[in-house]
Structures are given as C-alpha cells and as structure tokens.
Amino acid sequence: MTQSRSLEPDLVFAARLADAAWAAIRVHFRQLDGVDDKSGAGDTAAFDPVTEADRAAEAAMRDLVAAERPGDGVTGEEFDDTPSSTGYRWYFDPIDGTRAFVAGLPVWTTLIALVDPDGVPVIGVIDQPVVGERYLGWPGGARLDTHTGSHPIRVSDCEDLRRATIATTDPFIFTPSEQGAWNHLRATARITRYGLDAYGYARVAAGTIDLVAESGLKSWDVAALIPVVRGAGGLATDWRGNTPKLGGQIVCTSSQAVLDQALLALKRAAD
Amino acid sequence: MTQSRSLEPDLVFAARLADAAWAAIRVHFRQLDGVDDKSGAGDTAAFDPVTEADRAAEAAMRDLVAAERPGDGVTGEEFDDTPSSTGYRWYFDPIDGTRAFVAGLPVWTTLIALVDPDGVPVIGVIDQPVVGERYLGWPGGARLDTHTGSHPIRVSDCEDLRRATIATTDPFIFTPSEQGAWNHLRATARITRYGLDAYGYARVAAGTIDLVAESGLKSWDVAALIPVVRGAGGLATDWRGNTPKLGGQIVCTSSQAVLDQALLALKRAAD
C-alpha cells in the first residue's frame, strides 16, 4: 500500500461525484420507467426496487474515478469491484433508500465514501439533491452544503435516551432478537422515525436525530455514514460498541451516554 | 347559510396563508427552542411535540383571515374556533407531522383547507416549504407549485394493491383490529412507507404513492387532504368506503380498484 494522501482534493472530487450522480438520477426521479425487482417478480414481500437511475448514476461515478483516480478501487451495488493500486477504495450507493425513491419521497440519498488502505472510511458524502442538502464528513469535521451556503454541522447535546429522537429504516426487517432490542429503544426514546435510510444518519450529524440503529447493511450503505457522523462529533459502532465493520449491524449516536444506554439493549441482539 | 362563492380568489388566498405560515415557521425549523409536551412531561410514550412555530404560524394565518375573510370561521389545532357568518370555515394545521419537524425531516407539511356551508372541503393545500413543494386541490383539479413552476398532478394508474406503494404514519398507534387490517394491506402491497403524515396524501395526488390509510385523525388533519386527492383524480373515503367525516379513519387511493381491494381488510376494523 501507499502512504496516506491529502484528503482535501478527494473531498472536492467526492462532491463532483455527487453532482454526476444527480445529473444521471434527476431525469428519473418521480418519472419511474425502469423499476426492476431483484428478488424475482413473484416475491412481493422481498421487493427490492432498482431503477435505471441507480445504474446510470453508478456508471457516471465510476467513469469519473476511472478518468481522474485511475489507481483507486471502486465498490458499488450495481457493478463488480474494480481493483485498487493505491490502497484507497471508493464506495458508491447511488440511491440509498430505493423504496423512498420509488414512493417519490425526498429522503433517499446518494452515498459516496473513500476508504483508506487500513479499511477506515475517511471521506463520506450523504447527498439529498431534491431538498438540496449535501452532508460531508472527514477526519475532524463535517459540514452541510445547501443552495444558499455551507456551514459546519454538529451532533445534538442529547445525553439521555429518554429524551432522544431515534430512527431505523424498517421495524419489520429485524430478526426477532433485533426486534426485541429495537422495541426497548423505541419504548424508551421520545420520538421514533422510520424509512429514512441514510438520511437519518445525516440528521444525527446535523443534530436533530440522536440515534440510528440498523442491521443487515452492506459496505456501500455504511462507509459514507461513518465519516459524516464522526466528523460532526458523533459515535459510530457495531451493536457491541466496537469499531463497526463495513456492513451488518451499526448504531450511531450523538453522545457516549446515549450509546451506552442503547447498548444495554442492542448488545443482547449483537451478531 | 349563503350561496356558494367563486373559489378562485380563495385558492390564491390559501397560497398566501401558506406563505404566511412558512414565514413564521422557518426561523424555528431545525432550531428548536420551544418543544412542549402536551401530554405531560412524564409521559414519554405519548409525547406530542408542539413548537412555538406551530402557534406563531396559526396566529399569522388567523390574522390574515380576520383581515381579509372576516366572515369566515376558523378551526385549528392551537386556538379556539371562531364563528362563521358566511358558512365557510378555514381549517389550519400549521405543522402536520410535528415528530418529523422535531427530527428535522422535510416531510412535515402545513395544511390549509376551506370547507363550504355543506361541510364539504372545497380547497386544500398541502405545503412542504423546505423542499419547496405546494400541493393544491379544488373541485376538478389539482396542481403542484414549486420554485421552478406549476404543473397539474394526477394520481397513478395503479389498479392492483399487490403492485401498490402504500403508507401510514405510525404502525404502532392503530388499535388491534386496525393493526390487523393494516398488516393485511402491508403484506399485500409492494412497498410500505411510514412517518409521512399528510405528505403521503400529497404523493398519492402526485402519483407516486397509491394508498394511504390512517385513523384517529382530527378535522384539521383531514380537511386539506380531500380536495387535493380528489382534484388529482383519486378517492377519499372512510374505512367503509363512505364519504369521509372530517376526522377519524380515512383511506385515500389512486383508483376504485385499489380502494375496493383495501376495503376488504379495512371494513373489518371500521368504526
């Protein structure tokens, strides 16, 4: 592997990747004409929509990497991994929250991450272009770019799960033990929200949600979240409180206190 | 009561009411400093957030009605009813989806309706100012106004609940029999979304959601939805398929076929 590189050009490049993704996606949003069903046409319970937009956006981002970061690897949902000669690897999820996308809701996001040779996500972008919000994180900082400007973001000062606003994507996809843990959190917290996918983590970073816990995630779901949440002063661990893997169970919180309270329940359902 | 009046000036006026509401709300969104708990500080399970924004926005709209529609009545969540001498009554919910608002999510809405002397909602506005979307409905039409223009909206052509995207606000607030009915719909439909409050009905009107079913609604929750969904070609009934009351159980669908399929389950839990 190589020595670590300056991340500032990569942060600028990551924002350009997000622009390229939206250019490919925007003609399809609320104009669906290519909803496929990865899980088989007859399996409505496990419907997993993928659109032309997803494929076109990932292809656009991969083209940019091939042209401007040819040594970096790419991992994404839609196409095979490409090799890395630099040790750095980009992770793309062009449309995280495909169900929200299909339903025409402005809470799906484009996820972009750069992972360093040690496997640590060092740049994360959570982009919601319909609302015009781009959340960016890097070691030591995070910011929100909108059409009217850019400002640093910071997690809330919530220290008590009983006062917390919490979120998970789907209360019905948990395993039974995960469901039990989640029900404990839900019964303890003040407000619970569903269906946000990565947008929930963006709002942890921006201070209006205090905890998100999910399971069954893929590497391209997770990699972008960690730098954004950590850069804003939050915590990201697995359900045992350890360094999260790029996938599986993850919990992000505004504070160590909220994390500790949540882990009392989450640990019992940890993989 | 009086004879019916031309609604075009009222539609323009309703849009001005939405502007006034957002002017009062925007300084508070994601800047929460006045979250109250109507249900009592110790009752976290039934937390019902209300903000200064809610009160300020309703007051601003009431002031406009008093100045420009002094004979019309007003019903809203935050203040007492005012009398009507015209037979017409405005219904205001400045922040429908207070939990989404507190969580900093762009899916809360401002609801504005005008109900005629026969009790029929004839104008509805579902306004989401963060995204910049204003859904308006009236007898025979509906449109979506955004920062870049205005265009007519139309429900989807979905005729099959098995292919439908459906939504309800909270799967955990139903009564047991309502929960049973909802579980039937959820198991049948293709995609289910939660936490949308009135924004879900707006997306029924705009053709990306095919059914929303809810219960326990108040008059100011319901009155604005009906003209928007009906104006876009959709259907709005109670859970028996009858003309909805201004409150309680409501179901809105893109088509009679989806409604008929849903009523098979909903009727069993109808009030």
Please give a structural write-up.
Two copies of one chain form a homodimer. Chain A is of the alpha+beta class. Chain A has two domains: 145 residues, Fructose-1,6-Bisphosphatase, subunit A, domain 1 (Fructose-1,6-Bisphosphatase, Chain A, domain 1); 109 residues, D-Maltodextrin-Binding Protein, domain 2 (3-Layer(aba) Sandwich), CATH 3.40.190.80. Helices cover 31% and strands 26% of the residues of chain A. The first copy, chain A, has eight helices and 14 strands. In chain A, the strands form three sheets. A seven-stranded mixed β-sheet of chain A has the order 3-4-5-6-7-8-9, sandwiched between helices. In chain A, helix 1 packs antiparallel against helix 2. The two termini of chain A are 31 Å apart. The interface between A and B is large, with 37 and 37 residues.
Largest sheet of chain A: 7 strands, mixed
Q: Helix tally of chain A?
A: 8
Structure summary, number of beta strands of chain A:
14
Outline of chain A: globular
Please tell me the overall pLDDT of chain A: 91
Structural class of chain A: alpha+beta
Of all protein chain pairs, which has the greatest interface, and how many residues does each chain bring to it? A-B, 37 and 37 residues
Can you tag this structure with a few keywords?
seven-stranded mixed beta sheet, D-Maltodextrin-Binding Protein, domain 2, Fructose-1,6-Bisphosphatase, Chain A, domain 1, 271 residues, alpha+beta, 2 domains, homodimer, five-stranded mixed beta sheet, 14 strands, 8 helices
Task: Describe the structure in brief.
Chain A is an alpha+beta fold and 271 residues long. The first copy, chain A, has helices at residues 8-25, 52-68, 98-102, 176-188, 198-205, 219-222, 225-231, 256-266, and strands at residues 36-37, 49-50, 73-76, 89-96, 109-115, 121-128, 133-138, 141-146, 149-152, 165-168, 191-194, 211-217, 235-237, 248-253.
